[in-house]
Amino acid sequence: MLINRRTFLYATGVLAVAPKVSFAQLRDTYYEVLLRHTRWAETQYDATAGRYRRTDFGFAVVLGNAVLLTRGTYDASLAGVEKDVLRDHTLATIKHFAASNVLAGGTEWGKTLFWDTTFQSYFVLAARLLWPDLDAQTRANVETIARGQADYTTSLGTANDPRSGSWTPNGLTGGHRGDTKLEEMGVYAQSLAPGLAWHGDGPGWREAFGRWSRNEAGLPAADLANPSTVDGTPISANTATNLHDTFIVENHGSFGPHYQEELWRTSGRNSVHFLLAGRPLPEVLTKQPNGELLWRTILATMSDAGEPLMPMVNDREHLYGRDVIPLAFRSTVLRDPMAAWAESALASRLLAYQAHPPVYRLAKFSGEAKYEPEARAELAISYLLHELRPPVAPATDFFTRAAITIDHGADPGLLTHQSAAAWAGTVTKPGFTKLAWQPAHDDWLFKISGATPMLLPPAAVTGRNTVAYQRIRDGFDATASVLRFADGFAGTATLPTGTIVCALPRPGRVDVHNLAMAGMPGLTGSRTYTGSAGRVTVQAREGFRVDELTLPETSARHVRMVGITPHPTYGYSLFEFEVGRGTVTASSFDPGYEPAKATDGDPGTRWAVARAERGRADSWISVDLGAATTVHRVRLRWETAAAGAYRVETSLDGAVWTTVAEYPRPDLSTPGWLDVDGRAGFVSRSSEPITVQGDTITVPAGLVEGYVRADLRKIAAEQAPQCPPGVRASTADGFLSLFNLSGADVTGTVRLRGTRLYRGTQVTTRDGTDYALTLPSATARIEAPWFTARGIPPGITAVVHDGQRVTFRGGPAMFVLTHRDGRSLPVVLGRAERTVSMPPATPFPINDLALGRVTFPNSVLPPGMSDPAAAVDGEQHTAWKPGPNGRMVVDLGTTRAIGEVDLQWTVGPAPPHTVTYSVDGKTYGTDATARYVAVSTGWRPGHASLRSIVVRT
């Protein structure tokens, strides 16, 4: 009995909820998934040819087969094929494709870096696993492939592969805007790994492998701060710029975390060759320049499924089979407990995902056939990594440790916030504008990928003002922004509680995942929506959408559908427009998709608008019934190109038209608040309702708050702040979120309910406070509720200086002041002003530009040096040990005018040291207008360590 058989019963609906897979079960889970996937793999077998297919590299299934044939307990009932048959199919395929590879003298495949060498790596590995069963000629061909590829790739130097068309790493310069070259450099490296692993060092092989591997995540500003060597070569020799300076990766024109994982995906493919061959891993696989800063941005977008969220790129979402290997590499080779947690979370979903139609497949949502054999191979490699390198124990507090805010800047267009309760990101990249939000990190709740709109208008952002608050410096993690559009402004805020706040210039849209995927949390085949107006359950729609519209009985000769909102890519297309027989016309049609095909009774034929008209909103299709007829219903069965909105019109003469029905019709329209499946919900501070239509939620313009599992009825009953014109404010979860949605500075008063006190000046009233507001144009900010004042009378002025001190005036009065950390202090206020301090509370925000910033050296430290991040972590018990002549650099994130740098050393003599500054991270001097601050030392044993570097304006 396989250990995960019970899990598969959960996945197929026999049991209710899939349990977590323990980390000890990972290898067995992968084995069982491979067994079940074999039923799909065998569909790639061509019985006439006697081998697996070449199309879409279907023959790469041999690697998964090889693992099943040489390891574990083979179960033919799960695999759907007897072991001896699978062995025969696999060996015949390896024999054929080893001979047909270009490097072995064939003409069918191979040698081409893009993408033959990826599948070549799988193929060589499969052959090595089955080496004793191969004939001498096949072995020789496999050896020729590995050697020949290493020779060919080395012969290219840093030039392009002429066989790969326009695909290029751009030499060793790389590139990061729109299309990272990290992936391409990784492919160059992986094409060399089989030769190095199985045949030792050939002429120039190791040098080329190291050069491409080191440069994958290279960034000059970081590398030049690092005197370390990897495989004997200085990191400072790296030249590639494959990442933005916030270590974010773009591909397909936008942020693509799937491609960010490519560093560890190719490393996993490479490592398994060395490990299986019994050779030491090249140092560059275990000491990856800047790799940990790259991983930090993955953690900042991780979901509860162990898969990074894809708020922009949409063609790699839920690609479960392929996303395993980066995590397996990090958890086994790099022994990363955070990756180990993510891998366990992902593995827990594999069987449930695999059981969902189309059954057995691992890349069912990818849209590209080649990803299926690739996913099988990657899962097989992950199995082997766990066999060859026992993994580290997973982290137990993943999202607490991963919590972070990062403003990646206007160019990448992402302001992101990972909290313990949710993920949120304000996206401003052209074509992807949205406030993406995943409560509880559940990437099967709301649709946020690609061009899918969410909350914000999908229009181009013409101005962006953002703030990323950090707990270490500000006392809390949060983000705030005001975005300018051609016709107005919008505001966003994300809070440490997982709550979001948005100030919308027009109604916002949220699309909900609604699938029946047994064993996957939340995907029960329906979503339940609850609001003050009632409750509705929306069933998951299977297949193409069908709209059944009941009309008031109408006498009509002509009936037509007039579009309002087309499918964003394909416009409008109908299999059936069922209203009666007659002559059919349309505003346009594509050849082969004429209007009459929507009424011909054939469910397989359809009408589609002309390609040139796909973007036209008011396209139409009309049926002339020939005479006046009583019409009371219309049925429309749509193709993928389904209208987001349309109306049905009737006419007696074909000239004067009357609207008799409109789509969408809300399933629920509710004022004030809406709960989504008990998982999350929205509170609207508007008189307009929140509506649910199918799997789409529409929230009204104005201030909207999003909560994770909260009492929305109670929250909606609380009065919203009263603001000056142009300003919106929220006190969600006690935090004061402020937005100036205008082009002018605003000074005025915000009227608040309750006794919370925020940084700044406020005067108490009978039921709250009047908060004195000054807010520059088109800006936002968030204030923490540092204090509450229980029993404070009206008319008291409270000036909150920071998270520790408050000045009161306007007494006499007696009340209790409570800090947000729970400490309380009775306050007796006379007629004189009194300042109250609450030590040991920290006086947030702290005036230190270095706190929590990225430091270098980072991923690879020189001998004798400890992590320089210890000098900016705000902790007094940690310190940076420079090591011999050690040097560290703090990246302030942006160029600032620096007024003071204070170095605090541990006990003992401070080493000789200098402080220098740089704008670009390359050239350092004494000009204190800088982004980078460097501390260079003459450290020797016996010298003190650097406890902190404090940088002030």
Helix count from the secondary structure assignment:
20
Largest sheet: 9 strands, antiparallel
Measure the end-to-end span. Answer: 66 Å
User: Which runs of at least 5 residues are low in confidence (pLDDT < 50)?
Assistant: 1-19
Q: What is the overall pLDDT average?
A: 94
Residue fraction in strands: 25-35%
Give me the Rg, rounded: 31 Å
Characterize the overall form. flat
Briefly note the structural class of the backbone: alpha+beta
Count of beta strands: 49
Helix proportion range: 10-25%
Biggest sheet: strand arrangement: 11-12-13-14-30-27-26-16-17
Keyword list:
953 residues, Discoidin domain-containing protein, alpha+beta, Galactose-bd-like_sf, seven-stranded antiparallel beta sheet, FA58C, nine-stranded antiparallel beta sheet, single chain, 20 helices
